[in-house]
Design goal:
Strand order of the largest sheet: 3-2-1-7-8-9
Radius of gyration: 18 Å
Shape: elongated
Structural class: alpha/beta
Bound molecules: nicotinamide-adenine-dinucleotide
Number of domains: 1
CATH superfamily: TPP-binding domain
Distance between the termini: 16 Å
Strand content: 15-25%
CATH topology: Rossmann fold
Length: 230
């Protein structure tokens, strides 16, 4: 079994999703995460990036859904998590086999020399963080609009999708491509798709075999309990 997770699994940790009435895009302009805009206006983008990703994400803690997935892995029931999230909460909950389709916000990278930094060792308060070797503005090491998917995450994610017998699809609208191809690939290869989401999504009436309608923080601990009873 594998899990494919989206922004919805972290909503109960206090991180808003991108879409919907309370989503981040109702407040911010998505262009601040467009790579070509960032390259020309890095300083401007960082004002928003700091607020969105480090003020919100920095304080967030894993919730019962993240912990239930970590428990499933520990019990040998879950082989891997493919996540669209960049918030590090699966790892903080104890999950080991996590493929980050869109990278991770806890790393920063210099696009000029490739040096990687960790946010915990970097001052994000006094202006945009810069590379100590060439003074370039650092970019958060997650995938911006207009950038490709990290190749290792891509390969591992589709490998999981091709091999799994069950795929849990948790908290994703399915509107972000190519990430949404992962559950589609799993379905094509014969996996049973269980979706967990309070709302219907692009997956619900296409690949989903069983829709457990509800919040991830309620449904996943319940599912783990049910499996334990077996
Ligand atoms: P999305 O913002 O498009 O949609 C969120 C989905 O979560 C919706 O289907 C919604 O119904 C569902 N949802 C809301 N509350 C839920 C809950 N308690 N339990 C389960 N589901 C719930 O999210 P997406 O499809 O993941 O795509 C957005 C992109 O934005 C992703 O690629 C991701 O990289 C990025 N993103 C990440 C974070 C994060 O790292 N936490 C936050 C915002 C956006």
């Amino acid at each position: 079994m594998m899990a494919f997770t989206g922004a919805g699994i972290s909503v109960e940790s206090g991180i808003p999703p991108f879409r919907g009435a309370t989503g981040l895009w109702s407040k911010y302009d998505p262009k601040v995460l467009d790579i070509s805009y960032f390259l020309d206006h890095g300083e401007d983008c960082w004002k928003f990036i700091r607020e969105i990703f480090y003020d919100f994400f920095g304080k967030a803690k894993p919730n019962s859904a993240h912990f239930a997935l970590a428990e499933m892995e520990k019990a040998g029931l879950l082989q891997a998590i493919v996540t669209q999230n960049i918030d590090n909460l699966h790892q903080m909950a104890g999950s080991k086999n996590v493929y980050e389709f869109h990278g991770n916000s806890s790393r920063l990278v210099c696009l000029k020399c490739g040096t990687t930094y960790y946010t915990e060792d970097t001052d994000l308060r006094s202006g945009p963080p810069r590379c100590k070797y060439d003074n370039e503005i650092l970019k958060p090491d997650f995938v911006f609009f207009g950038e490709g998917i990290p190749s290792e995450a891509w390969d591992k994610s589709f490998e999981c999708a091709e091999q799994c017998d069950v795929c849990l699809v948790i908290g994703s609208t399915g509107e972000v491509v190519p990430a949404s191809y992962v559950p589609h690939k799993a379905s094509q290869k014969g996996a049973f798709i269980i979706e967990i989401n309070p709302e219907s999504s692009q997956f619900t009436y296409s690949v989903t075999d069983l829709w457990l309608q509800g919040k991830a923080g309620d449904v996943l601990p319940w599912l783990m309990e049910e499996i334990r009873k077996e």
